[in-house]
Amino acid sequence: MKKYIAEIIGTFFLVYTVCLTVSSKQELAPIAIGLSLAVMIFAGGHLSGAHYNPAVTVAVWLRGKIGFTDAIVYIFCQTVAGVVAALVAATLVGKGGGAAPIDPQKLIVAEAIGTFALAWVVLNVATTKANANNSFYGAAIGLTVTAGAVAVGGVSGAAFNPAVATGAVAMGLLSGGQLWLYWVANLLGGAVAALVFKGIKADD
Q: Does the domain made of 2-200 have the CATH classification 1.20.1080.10?
């Protein structure tokens, strides 16, 4: 149960930060979001692995570092936490009026590549023997999200995380009709990262 609670807390604060900074158009939103993820990873990594992201959970499951049942429960906890975080944020700053749809092709490409990068970093800094018990994994993962948000935030919204996308839709920051595209692109990016990782590090 501790690991599920850790996933709920970490995902909540990540999505809460996303919703508040993006809805208020903070210029430093990418930095705040990356830092929020980094500190929550440092806080919960020893409890749950600190996925806070269904796409990362899928990647770690395909990598063989988490069981199928735990993966399903993780994804459920992350998604619910994302929605709750958005609803709480909405009580503070109000809901958005509903975002305009994004070009589907650009959305899928940007989100799949960004999520691949995120899952690739997670697998390499947090699940390998060479980097076991390192002190930088949270910072590396958080900085990956920051870089991705700056690079394609204006293209796709830079969710790289189905729980974030779900929360952003609940907040009115992303188009609800395109939520399924985020889920598909993010899970695809995470799955491909895991397959590439296993191909390169089959003996790890």
A: yes
**Letter string b/e over residues 121-151, b meaning 16 or more CB atoms within 10 A of that residue's CB:** bbbbbbbeeeeeeeeebbbbbbbbbbbbbeb
DSSP letters spanning 171-193: HTSS-GGGHHHHHHHHHHHHHHH
Taking only the tens place, the pLDDT of each residue in 8-23 is 999 999 999 999 999 9
72 vs 57: CA distance, rounded Å = 9
Tokens representing 81 are 């936490």
| The model's pTM | 0.95
CA dist., res. 175 & res. 178, Å (int): 6
Which burial class, exposed, middle or buried, applies to 111 when counting CB atoms under 10 A from its CB (0-12, 13-18, 19+)? buried
